[in-house]
Specification:
single chain; about 300 residues; four-stranded mixed beta sheet; 10 helices; about 35% helix; globular
């Protein structure tokens, strides 16, 4: 549930008005899945929701965009995970989150047959999926790799401070790692994208793509180092921008593009996302993204 703008909180027992309040899908898997589907990539989502109105809404929205929901479990005991999002006037957000059914997501929910039919398995939301975080995630990734599936992983902020101690076993199973730079700093203890990426590569990651917000992204693997500037847009809501970047990046992986084109496309999808209220409302199809990139040819070029 998003409210905007929220630049201050009401006193205890008092009311404060906002200009807009809307209900949107959220969560890394739903955001990335819908964005991929809108771009034009056939996508399925694995997850767990409650048998409640929010669960009905989530599945309805996923299916509206053509996302395969056959592996979304309806949990009779837990309510659907939900977040109150306070969008500040400048587009930055603050969150109040309820883990809900996500907390019950378990290794057995990972539909291996669905994964084997995919080109890429992307795990989003690491650090807020207590049933699979750590070793279970590593095992799921390993099974995907054994089946010849490309693996990708994105993180959220770890409010419990476990960071690398929890994530380390997963990294050697990850072809593409897509955290924000702030998350990478906490994982590695390094203060530059170059140093953070080096630590993550040493931990076993194939390619690191660090999200730098309005600055774009930094991509590094054994053969390439790319700093790709972002696109200048008027930010309305930054919700889902990181997941939209991930979707754009994974689209490039599926299409077989080189890293420079992939990173620039991912930056464009992330930039388009922030121009509308909601986690994927601003994302368009591949042709529209290409038009956006052509119209902004002066920015977003390889550094």
């Amino acid at each position: 549930m998003l409210g905007r703008p929220v630049d201050g909180y009401p006193e205890r027992g008092k009311l404060r008005l906002v200009d807009r309040m809307e209900l949107h899908t959220g969560g890394c898997a739903a955001n990335t899945g819908i964005s991929l589907a809108k771009i034009g990539i056939a996508t399925g989502v694995i997850g767990r929701v409650g048998r409640d109105g929010f669960g009905d809404f989530i599945i309805g929205e996923l299916e509206r965009y053509g996302v395969n929901c056959s592996a979304v479990v309806r949990d009779a005991a837990a309510a659907t995970s939900a977040t109150m999002v306070m969008v500040h006037g400048d587009g930055e957000r603050s969150f109040i989150h309820y883990l809900g059914a996500n907390a019950a997501l378990c290794e057995g929910d990972a539909d291996i047959e669905l994964i084997r039919r995919a080109k890429v398995l992307h795990i989003g939301g690491t650090f807020v999926l207590p049933g699979i975080d750590g070793e279970p995630t590593a095992r799921i990734l390993a099974k995907a790799r054994e089946a010849g599936v490309t693996t990708s992983l994105d993180t959220t902020w770890d409010s419990k401070g476990r960071w690398m101690s929890l994530l380390r076993p997963c990294l050697e199973q990850v072809h593409y790692f897509l955290p924000s730079f702030e998350e990478a700093r906490m994982l590695t203890g390094k203060d530059t994208p170059e140093e953070a990426a080096e630590v993550l590569l040493d931990a076993g990651v194939g390619t690191v793509a660090l999200k730098l917000g309005e600055r774009g992204c930094y991509i590094r693997n054994a053969d390439a180092r790319l700093e790709i500037p972002g696109f200048k847009v008027k930010a309305v809501d930054a919700c889902g921008a990181g997941d939209a970047f991930a979707a754009g990046f994974l689209a490039g992986v599926v299409r077989g593009w080189d890293l420079e084109r992939t990173g620039r496309f991912a930056n464009a999808v992330g930039a388009m996302c922030v121009t509308a209220l909601g986690s994927a409302s601003g994302v368009r199809d591949e042709a529209a993204v290409e038009e956006f990139m052509a119209a902004h040819r002066g920015s977003g070029a390889s550094g």
